[in-house]
Amino acid sequence: MSVLDVRSVSKSFGAIRALSEVSFTVAAGEVVGLMGDNGAGKSTMVKLIAGNFPPSDGEIAVDGEVCHFHKPIEARGAGIEVVYQDLALADNLTAAQNVFLGREMKKGLWPFRVLDKQAMINRSAKLFAELKSETRPRDLVKKMSGGQRQAVAIARTRLSNAKLVLMDEPTAAISVRQVAEVLELIRRLKSQSVSVMLISHRMPDVFAVCDRIIVMRRGSKVADKATENTSPEEITGLITGAIRDA
What we know:
By secondary structure, this protein is an alpha/beta fold. It contains eight helices and twelve strands. It has one domain (4-240): P-loop containing nucleotide triphosphate hydrolases (Rossmann fold), CATH 3.40.50. The strands form three sheets. A six-stranded mixed beta sheet has the order 6-9-10-3-11-12, with helices on both faces. Strands 2-1-4-5 form a four-stranded antiparallel beta sheet, with helices on one face. Helix 5 runs parallel beside helix 6. The protein is globular. Pfam families: ABC_tran. InterPro entries: AAA+_ATPase, ABC_carbohydrate_import_ATPase, ABC_transporter-like_ATP-bd, P-loop_NTPase.
């Protein structure tokens, strides 16, 4: 059974049709690339899956059960987490504090409950170890590399044992070494049977870690191909429209 089923989904904003009858699946432990030029509908699709707003038509199912998300917390409850391009991290806080931001662990009895800082540090350390990241729980985020910041954002998704992690341009504007770290983090999620949907403009990254590549153009899906059965040249043609479909 697929972790995610997008079934004939369309989305309109007034007279503007952002998505038109898009269908695809994501299997457990599969890494799927979502590619397309600006305005292709990638961001709208991610926001639908993440629960920012519902589709105009069609349906989204998680583990075979149709879901009607109206806000992100509902999607999170179904096992869908998002790592946005800006990561939404607080620079003045530590890695552990960022991992648990909004989900803090507490100890004691009400009304005398206090933050359990050590428990959060220990849990964060375990998550970073699982991801094989060198990120340390007590380090301030503002002193971290791009790859370490991604590790913090991804560790946060592991608190809820996410089934699917949507990653929006995770390798944009970071160094070559940090790109390698992020791609390894994606492989770690895959090894733990977590599905990943990678939204990216970087062709080498997509071909390095993705099992399949979905290409969108002008709100429609124009290709859904196994990575081993396509090439960067074909995907580029599909994105630009030089190749109509495949």
